Amino acid sequence: MTAPREWADKDFYADLGVSSSASAEEVKKAYRKLARENHPDKNPGDTAAEERFKKAANAYDVLGDEDKRKEYDQLKAMLRSGGFGSFGGSGGAGFPGGFRTTSENFDFSDIFGSGGGPSGGFSSDGGFSDIFGGIFNRGGGAGGTARPKRGADVETDVTLEFREAAQGITIPLQLSGDAPCSTCHGSGARSGRPTTCDQCRGTGFVSEQKGAFGLSQPCSKCHSTGQVIEDPCPTCRGTGTVHRTRSITVRIPAGVIDGQKVRLAGQGEAGPNGTPAGDLFVTVHVRPDEVFTRTGDDLEVTVPVSFAELALGGTVAVPTLDNHVKVKVPAGTPDGRTLRVRGRGVPKRGGEAGDLLVTVQVQVPKDLDPAATSALRSYAQAEKDSGFNPRSGWAGAK
C-alpha cells in the first residue's frame, strides 16, 4: 500500500492509463483490465508484468478510494503550482524571496516531517507534516478544529475455493487488535465525556512565532486531539481501546481474482478515544479448480466427447458454477473446437456474467468388444469408399 509521503513522485493516473478526470467506474475498469492482463499467475516468471500488476494495485488503492483520491489530487495540484501557499506572518504570499518547490532547493521529504531540528520547530512530530497535515487527515490549521486520528489499518489473508471466489461468499473472520472499550464506550473517560482542552481551546494546535514565521504546533497537552481525559476509564486507562479478539462477518464479492485485496472501510483497529477505526484489507488467495479455469470473467471447461458425437452431432451436459446446462454440438464439429455459452461465466456487478467457453475433446476408446470392432471396421470401409481422406489438403501428405 502506498503511503501519502510517497505520493509526491507517483503518477497513479498514468499507471492505470486514465486521465485525471476519469470517473470512478473508468478507474475501476482500467484497474481490472490491467490486473487481468498482468496477473502473476497468467505471466509466470515475467517480472515486467509483475511490476505492472503491483503499480496498478498501488494506483487503484489510492484512486479507487474517494477520500484518498481527493487528497492525492490536492497534493498534485500544489506541486504543480510550484509552491505551498502562505505561512504565518501578516498574510504574506509565501517564504521571503519567493520560495519555490524546485529540485534544487526543496526536498519532498521535508513536507512529511523527516528533516530539520528542534531549533527551527521542524521535528517529525511538529513540522511541515503538521502544517500540511490537513491534506492527509493528520491535523488542521491554528484556526480550525483538529482532525481526528484514526485506528490502524489491518491486513489479513483468506483462501477460497475457485467457485467461492467466482460466486462470492460471506465468511467469518477472527481479528486480534484494538477494539472500543465497552466500559467507556471508546471515549476513554469514566464519565464517557472527555473535556475540551483549555490550552488549545479544542483546536489541537497552538500558534508559535518563530522569527519571521508564525507556525502552528501540535498542542502538547492534548496531543493535538483537542480533548483531555480528566477522569480516565479504569478499564482502558483513558485510551478508549482494549486489545481483544473479535469476530466479524466479511462479504467477499463475486469475481475476485487470486491476490486481489478487498478493502472493508472501518473494520480495522479502533481509533483512540472514539476516533474512527482503520480499514481492513483482506488479501484473497484462490485455489485452482479441477474442472474450470478462468480468463477475465469467462469460465473455460474442456468436455470429453466421442467421435460419433462430433460426427453426428448431439447434446452434451456441461457443468457450470451452480448446475449443468445442455450444450448442442453441431454435426461435423472438429476436435478441439470451442463453443460459447452466453452468460454462464463469472458473475459481474449489475447482474451480468461472463461466458462459458466449452472446448470439446475426443476420447479414443482403448478396448472395443467384437461387435464394436466389427461395426467400426464397416464404417472405416464405408468412409474410404465415400472418398473421404482425413489428410486431404495437408501439407505433409504424399
From TrEMBL:
Keywords, comma-separated and alphabetical: Chaperone, Cytoplasm, DNA replication, Metal-binding, Repeat, Stress response, Zinc, Zinc-finger
UniProt: Zn(2+) 1 binding residues: 181, 184, 233, 236
An example Gene Ontology CC term for this record: cytoplasm
Residue ranges constituting the CR-type domain according to the UniProt record: 168-245
Binding-site residues for Zn(2+) 2, renumbered to this chain: 197, 200, 219, 222
Domain J: from-to ranges: 11-76
Cofactor(s) needed for function: Zn(2+)
SUPFAM superfamilies in alphabetical order: Chaperone J-domain, DnaJ/Hsp40 cysteine-rich domain, HSP40/DnaJ peptide-binding domain
GO BP terms in the entry: DNA replication; protein refolding; response to heat
Chain intervals annotated as zinc finger (CR-type): 168-245
InterPro entries referenced in this protein's UniProt entry, alphabetically: DnaJ, DnaJ_C, DnaJ_domain, DnaJ_domain_CS, HSP40/DnaJ_pept-bd, HSP_DnaJ_Cys-rich_dom, HSP_DnaJ_Cys-rich_dom_sf, J_dom_sf
Single GO term (MF): zinc ion binding
Manner of cofactor binding, per the entry note: Binds 2 Zn(2+) ions per monomer.
Subcellular location: Cytoplasm
PANTHER family: CHAPERONE PROTEIN DNAJ 1 (PTHR43096:SF54), DNAJ HOMOLOG 1, MITOCHONDRIAL-RELATED (PTHR43096)
Domain notes: The J domain is necessary and sufficient to stimulate DnaK ATPase activity. Zinc center 1 plays an important role in the autonomous, DnaK-independent chaperone activity of DnaJ. Zinc center 2 is essential for interaction with DnaK and for DnaJ activity.
The protein's assembly and partners: Homodimer.
HAMAP family hit by this protein: DnaJ
Family: Belongs to the DnaJ family.
Function: Participates actively in the response to hyperosmotic and heat shock by preventing the aggregation of stress-denatured proteins and by disaggregating proteins, also in an autonomous, DnaK-independent fashion. Unfolded proteins bind initially to DnaJ; upon interaction with the DnaJ-bound protein, DnaK hydrolyzes its bound ATP, resulting in the formation of a stable complex. GrpE releases ADP from DnaK; ATP binding to DnaK triggers the release of the substrate protein, thus completing the reaction cycle.
Annotated protein name in UniProt: Chaperone protein DnaJ
UniProt organism field: Corynebacterium maris DSM 45190
